[in-house]
Design brief:
The protein has 198 residues and is mainly α. It has 2 domains: 88 residues, no CATH class; 70 residues. 46% of the residues lie in helices and 0% in strands. It has 6 helices and no strands.
């Protein structure tokens, strides 16, 4: 008697059950591995992450320095993965997952007890080299230009540092450079006059 295929006479007749394709994940509660963390984040996603950081700072979970660093990181983040790393250790609540992400990826920590409050961005530090350039530039007046060269050097150092750091002091660096170069030019003119006079 010929053996019938599975489904016509059931498993007791020698038929082999159909092969179930393997799932891309181990358990139903484990989300599938998707490239969602590499998906580019929108401006609204960065604002939601900043709201979570504000709430954590208001609750005392982050220090001022940590809040400032993470605030800058969230403002410059380009992907969901970068934003998720900034709030991974905070009670961020359910965050909106990218389109096509599994439901498990949308489950987050409990919603914070205190709603996010409005906090202004952390104040930026003043560049030390810019401050030194301004002070040395001002001192060129009572010292007859003796601090002009150090003012110029500190001013150029400050300009280079301000181009890569999130600090304030551009106006002080420019003022120090102007006063420094004026004093250096005055000394050069004085020396040139002495040379021609002799």
């Amino acid at each position: 008697m010929a053996v019938q295929p599975w489904g016509e006479q059931g498993p007791g007749w020698g038929g082999r059950p159909p092969q179930v394709p393997a799932k891309p994940y181990g358990q139903p509660w484990q989300p599938a591995h998707t490239p969602q963390t590499a998906m580019r984040a929108a401006h609204a996603d960065r604002e939601r992450t900043i709201d979570v950081l504000k709430a954590a700072y208001a609750e005392g979970r982050l220090s001022a320095d940590e809040y400032a660093q993470r605030f800058d990181g969230a403002s410059a983040a380009q992907t969901y993965g970068e934003l998720a790393m900034l709030v991974a250790d905070l009670p961020s609540g359910p965050m909106v997952a990218p389109m096509g992400a599994p439901m498990g990826a949308q489950m987050g920590s409990p919603v914070p007890l205190v709603p996010p409050t409005f906090l202004p961005p952390p104040p930026r530090r003043t560049n030390a080299a810019a401050t030194a350039s301004l002070v040395l530039g001002v001192l060129t007046i009572p010292t007859m230009g003796m601090t002009g060269v150090p003012a110029v050097i500190c001013g150029h150092i400050a300009k280079n540092q301000l181009a890569t750091r999130n600090e304030e002091g551009d106006g002080m660096a420019v003022t120090g450079l102007v006063l420094g170069w004026l004093s250096v030019a005055s000394w050069l003119l004085l020396l040139a006059a002495l040379v021609f006079a002799s």
